[in-house]
User: What shape does this take?
Amino acid sequence: MDESHTIWIEKYRPVTLAEIVGQDEIVERLQSYVKAGSLPHLLFTGSAGVGKTTAAVALAREFFGEAWNLNFREMNASDERGIDVVRNQIKQFARTSPLGGAEFKILFLDEADALTPDAQAALRRTMESYAQTCRFILSCNYSSKIIDPIQSRCAIYRFRPLDKKAIAAEIDRIARKENLTVNDEAIDAISYIAQGDMRKAINALQGAAILSREITRDMIYAITSTARPDEIEELLSLSLSGDFESAGMTLSRLLHDRGIAPNELINQCYRAIIRRPMDESLRVSLIDQLGITDFRLSEGASSDLQMDALIAQFVMHAKRFGR
Assistant: This one.
């Protein structure tokens, strides 16, 4: 297969625990399981793109070596979330003996928080009954959606969003392998749009690399349909200074000329507001208005009307607080 057409998030996915970046403490603890030759049930929780699936697959590779595929199965609970998938597919895999001289098998259940409560109860019984032959690694975004009996049977690992240093290190590694030139501003832009998600970062890099071997900040923002931080700052400054007309023109340029999604703009405004120096009461009011607009958009309201109304509210709140 021509690797030039391979999706980079798969091409550069770490195959060993040591290659995983930004989760040093978790990696160290998982490596200790490999050294001891023993493994409890595990629960991986955290946002998307932080290494949960990669860690599970790498752990299986290090436990079972070349024959890891024989004793490892990955399932996505969001595909089939009812009790039947537990009673049939999961139970069938768990009850069979491990192959190749291994002491146990590993079943990785991704998006386990999508399972219904009844399915989770059945899964708990399966975990109890076949603990000798199968270890379970559950992955979820929200551990609160996993029932307590399952949580109490697992060692819980909370994967944090990847910091700028980890993302920069991985982008630099890929850039060197692909003969790309990525300047510091471009790395800052990739870190900004990724928000701790390595998949977003790598996809942004690959998208820009299709256009040019020299990656710039503007290319990253353009291909990801993301406003630059200075554009968000301009929008907020105009709104909070009471210049509704100019703020509206800036908003229109971002939404229509640049094609940035309203929800993405709301998210970026939120990130800017929590960092921007301002009166705390004003900050609270602006964030509250962002939440109201986000909810209205999710309910199907007109995006143009709601975004203009958001800017109008920003102007009104700023005047109320004497800006």
Summary: The first helix runs from residue 8 to 11. Residues 253 and 259 are 8 Å apart (CA to CA). The mean pLDDT is 91.
